C-alpha cells in the first residue's frame, strides 16, 4: 500500500489545521479523499444565501482537490450534508453545480440531512472521493 500524503487548502485550511489539527485531503495511490468542505471564505465568513454557500463549498472542494493534484473531472462520489432540510433551492443548486463541474458524468451521491455542522452558521458541507488516472 502506498504511503498516505496529506494536503491542506491554503487559507481557511491552514486555520483549520492549526486550530483543529486536521487536513483537508489525503491521497493514497491514485485515490483522493477530502474532508467536508463548507461554504466559507478564507476569513471564515459565510454567504447569506444558501445557494451562494453551496457554490462556495463547490469552489472550496475544487481548491482542496487541486492541492492533491486532482480536480472535479476526477470525482466519482459526493457526500453532502445539509442543515435545515431539503427545500427545492438546495437540490436545484446542487444539481446545477454538478452539471457545471461534472458535465460529462453523474457521480454517485449521498445527501444527508443533519442537525448541525462544525461551525454555527454552517448549512452545507461537501466531501468527495476522486480517482486520478
Q: What characteristics describe this protein?
A:
133 residues, single chain, globular, 60s Ribosomal Protein L30, Chain: A, 7 strands, 3 helices, alpha+beta
Topology:
Layout (H helix, E strand, L loop, with lengths): L4 E3 L4 H9 L4 E4 L2 E4 L2 E2 L11 H18 L7 E9 L4 H14 L6 E7 L9 E8 L2
Parallel strand pairs: 5-6
Antiparallel strand pairs: 1-2, 2-3, 3-7, 4-7, 5-7
Helix pairs in contact: 2-3
Task: Please provide a written account of the structure.
The chain is an alpha+beta fold. It has one domain: 2-Layer Sandwich (60s Ribosomal Protein L30, Chain: A). 31% of the residues lie in helices and 28% in strands. The chain contains 3 helices and 7 strands. Strands 1, 2, 3, 4, 5, 6 and 7 form a 7-stranded mixed beta sheet that branches. Strand 2 and strand 3 form a beta hairpin. Helix 2 packs parallel to helix 3. It is globular, with a radius of gyration of 14 Å. The relative contact order is 0.23. The model has no long low-confidence stretch (mean pLDDT 96).
Amino acid at each position: 500500500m502506498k504511503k498516505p500524503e496529506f494536503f491542506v487548502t491554503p487559507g481557511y485550511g491552514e486555520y483549520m489545521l492549526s486550530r483543529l489539527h486536521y487536513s483537508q485531503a489525503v491521497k493514497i495511490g491514485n485515490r483522493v479523499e477530502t474532508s467536508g468542505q463548507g461554504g466559507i471564505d478564507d476569513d471564515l465568513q459565510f454567504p447569506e444565501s444558501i445557494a451562494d454557500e453551496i457554490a462556495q463549498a463547490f469552489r472550496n472542494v475544487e481548491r482542496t482537490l487541486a492541492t492533491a493534484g486532482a480536480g472535479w473531472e476526477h470525482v466519482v462520489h459526493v457526500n453532502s450534508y445539509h442543515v435545515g432540510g431539503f427545500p427545492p433551492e438546495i437540490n436545484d443548486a446542487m444539481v446545477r453545480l454538478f452539471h457545471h463541474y461534472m458535465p460529462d458524468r453523474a457521480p454517485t451521491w449521498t445527501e444527508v440531512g443533519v442537525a448541525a455542522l462544525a461551525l454555527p452558521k454552517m448549512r452545507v458541507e461537501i466531501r468527495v472521493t476522486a480517482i486520478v488516472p
